[in-house]
Amino acid sequence: MSEQFFISNILNFAPNSGNGHPADLGEIVGHDLGDSTDIYQKVGKAHTDWKKIGQIDSEGKETTAEELIEYSMFGNSTSSFGGSITNCVTYDDNLQSIVDEAKNRPATTSFSTGDTLALQAAIDALSENGVLEIQTNDTYGEIILPVTKNIVIRAGQGFNPIFTGNGAMAFLNGAEKQFLIGLHFLNCTTPSSNVKGGCLLYNDNHTITKDIYISDCRFEKSTGSAVLLCYHQDSYTNNYQLNELSENINFLDCDFIRAGTDPVEGAANHLRGFNGVTIRRCFFDAGDGSDVAWGHDGKMRGTNLHACLNIRLQDTKALNSTINGGEGFKFDMLNASTAPFQNTGIVSRCYAENCLEGFDIDDQSDISLTDCIAFNCVEGFVMSKVTGSGGFEKCLAMKCGESFEIGSAVVPENVNLKCNLSVDSTIADFVLKNSMPLDVTNKTGTRDCLYSLFLRTL
After folding, report:
1. Any idea what DSSP says for residue 242?
2. How far apart are the C-alpha atoms of 396 and 412, rounded to whole Å?
3. 250: which residues sit within 8 A by CB, 6+ positions away?
4. pLDDT 10s digits, 173-190
């Protein structure tokens, strides 16, 4: 059995817990999550107390990381997430059903030529609820998506249409309920690094979109960031205001392969200024260094979520972010301490391998990670320069330099660091630069002890 297989499957093979759900790392290390709701009292509290922000959800209050965890772990339905959604399970089911409907909706237009201008005209001609199905393996140049609501652009069964160019596909201000399904973006270049994506971008400064769904797409070889959607294109460090946020963007079952070259703030998938971000079952691979022709092979981040509320990141892998800008998963406000909000969300069942930093909660972020794994990273889980709250629970770091690090600027009472496991670290298991005490539920061990635990779950 390989180490990678073991690491990615140990939680999946764990026996069921008493509540009928699969056992997780918290139970393996001897901590019953259901009896410890006090763990979450700190998560999100500092953010809520720091700045009261209204009109984020349907009840007129901001959804914090604490509430999101409650939705996920306990099915809490006392408040709503995203307006009509009462808990994360319902949200996941609803999201999948929305995408499945778009996949199965009968095509209103079938397109079977290789002409980019003709494809643009066909897309522009779509009416509301229209579905354009591309039934070719041809390569197309730049496309601008219309503002028309509720349109689907998808690959036909068995076809692989490719999009390329200097900013391959652009959204316009006001775009709403648009679906991209089964498209392949290849060898794209960015019109403006750190402002616009090479594959997906906002066409203009100050663009706001709503309900964008991207499913089963492949983003391969792009300069800059493959996906970079940014409201402030005049100065990306501008503080975001609530009325500048796009709403509800979703990436499901997408692959990002060598999908960027900007190591400053870029990422294969870089989103700035969103209320509602879901990334599920996606795969990021920055490259193993073997592609010499691709100048930045093995350097890029997987995701960078900047100024985003209500993040849901699940069942996603990030590999080989090894040089400058080498986070598998990053959450950042770019030192925007005067912004009227900060990142909020949860990350669950995600995996980072061979990265400078597997998971990095940076600046003003209210992000909580549960059941995540970092393998062979220089630093596995990092919380730095945070004025908000959040942390790591039931996470596993294996064969990392430093498994878990909490920065000196992080207020101890704002940190949730419990039920984590550090295995075979090469430098240190738990580095607490803010002098907070290490909770006794955190454990250290060797690979042999993990194998023993794993065998007990078979």
Report:
1. G
2. 21
3. 95, 99, 212, 213, 214, 215, 277, 278, 279, 280
4. 999 999 999 999 999 999
- The domain total for the chain is 1
Residue 325 or 361, more confident? 361
Tokens 């700190």, located at residue: 42
CATH number of the domain that residue 412 is part of: 2.160.20
108 domain-assigned: yes
Distance, in Å, from the CA atom of 334 to the CA atom of 351, rounded to the nearest integer, reads 24
Is residue 40 predicted with pLDDT exceeding 80? no
Say what angle helices 65-74 and 88-104 make with each other, to 10 degrees.
80
Neighbours of 48 (CB within 10 A): 18
Task: Report if residue 354 sits inside a domain.
Answer: yes
The 3-state secondary structure of 386-437 reads CCCCEEEECCEEECCCEEEEECCCCCHHHEEEECCEEECCCCEEEEECCCCC
Distance CA 231, CA 240 (A): 9
Domain boundaries, position 341: 21-448
Q: How many CB atoms neighbour CB 217 within 10 A? A: 25
Residue 124 located in a structural domain? yes
The DSSP 8-state label assigned to residue 92 in this structure reads: H
Say if residues 219 and 266 touch (Cβ distance below 8 Å). no
Amino acid in position 240: Y
Give the residue-averaged pLDDT of 301-325.
Answer: 89
The whole-angstrom separation of Cα 350 and Cα 283 is 10
**Is residue 89 very low, low, confident or very high in pLDDT (cuts 50, 70, 90)?**
low
* Residue count of the chain: 458
Tens-place pLDDT, residues 384-424: 876 667 889 989 999 999 999 999 888 888 888 998 999 99
Task: Work out the average pLDDT over 197-221.
Answer: 96
Beta strand spans in 30-175 (E): 109-111, 131-134, 139-140, 143-144, 151-155, 162-166, 169-171
Higher pLDDT, 8 or 127: 127
C-beta separation of 47 from 389 below 8 A:
yes
In a domain, 378, yes or no: yes
In whole angstroms, how far apart are CA 199 and each of 24, 80, 327?
37, 33, 21
What pLDDT does residue 267 have?
92
CA–CA gap between residue 156 and residue 81 (Å, rounded): 34
Is there a contact between 384 and 362 (Cβ–Cβ < 8 Å)? yes
Helix (H) or strand (E) run with residue 340 in it: none
Cα separation of 293 and 184, whole Å?
20
Rounded-to-integer distance, Cα 202 and Cα 230, Å: 7
